[in-house]
Amino acid sequence: MSLDPNRDARAARDLLVAAAREAGELALASFRAGGRTSAAVQWKQGGSPVTEADFAADALLKRRLGDRLPEAGWLSEETEDDAARLGLRSLLIVDPIDGTRAFIDGDPRWTVSVALIVDGRPFAAVVHAPALVETFAAARGAGAERNGAALERSARINGSGYVAAGPRRILAAMEARLGEPLDIRPFVPSLAYRLCLAAAGALDFAVAATDSHDWDVAAADLMLEEAGARLVGASGERLTYNEARTRRGALLATPEALAPRLLEAFRAAAGA
């Protein structure tokens, strides 16, 4: 499949959506809403869990997408990294189950997150929440959507406070700096889904802690961009992908209209 950005962003998006939905159905077979998963659970070095459903979804995505996009490299939370990807123009970034702890515990707020990167930026992306029957998808220059309806991001800029989600330490420091109240929503276990809520306008802004990785954020990054928002670090610049380092510092998802004000508060809070 050609990766000409002038012709194929929508086709790439549709390919990712189909693969993510198939992977989601596979994972759903061992998901138990309100109860513990039937999938076997292992523990990674560092203490984070992974299930056999993570590995199965990862393998399915690699087969489906590798067959159609053989020229793209591969970066996944559940696959050993291969430095050969660094020399490639295109890269698939995958989190087969973002929010594994939620998946294990029967919380439906987990997602399958897939992004196709071209020249360092997301080109097509999907964040699929199978247990919520919710799919966010985007193509570069062609907009973002949720369950087929276009996302049109609007920001509240009337000084009446903000709805936000993320680490409470950073948000509390931002609230003090802004001098306006924050309505801090409960923890969202899938970071990709949290950022998509910001893209959709369900949150005025969202923050990610310093332990996020490219596979957590790359797909949602495109949802935000195509909806008139941005995902940035303290520099305020958009993220670039397919670099050796995959771990990120604290990140802010902000609508463009609020970016100057929120970035000032974010920089101060993240550095505190």
Query: How much beta, percentage-wise?
Result: 25-35%
Structural class: alpha+beta
Catalogue the unreliable spans.
none
Major beta sheet summary: 7 strands, mixed
CATH architecture of the largest domain: 2-Layer Sandwich
Helices, by number, come to 7
Give the SSE string.
HEEHEEHEEEEEEHEHEHEEH
The portion of residues assigned to helices is 25-40%
Shape descriptor reads: globular
- Rg estimate, integer Å: 18 Å
Instruction: Please indicate the count of domains.
Output: 2
Query: Briefly, what CATH class of the largest domain?
Result: Alpha Beta
What does this structure look like?
The protein is an alpha+beta fold and 272 residues long. It folds into 2 domains: 9-150, 2-Layer Sandwich (Fructose-1,6-Bisphosphatase, Chain A, domain 1), CATH 3.30.540.10; 162-270, D-Maltodextrin-Binding Protein, domain 2, CATH 3.40.190.80. The chain is 33% helix and 25% strand. It has helices spanning 9-28, 52-68, 100-105, 168-178, 191-200, 214-226, 259-270; strands spanning 41-43, 49-51, 73-76, 90-98, 111-118, 121-129, 134-139, 143-146, 149-150, 162-165, 182-184, 205-208, 229-232, 251-255. The strands form 3 sheets. The protein has a 7-stranded mixed beta sheet, with helices on both faces. The protein has a 5-stranded mixed beta sheet with strand order 11-10-12-14-13, with helices on both faces. A two-stranded antiparallel ribbon has the order 1-2. It is globular, with a radius of gyration of 18 Å. The termini are far apart.
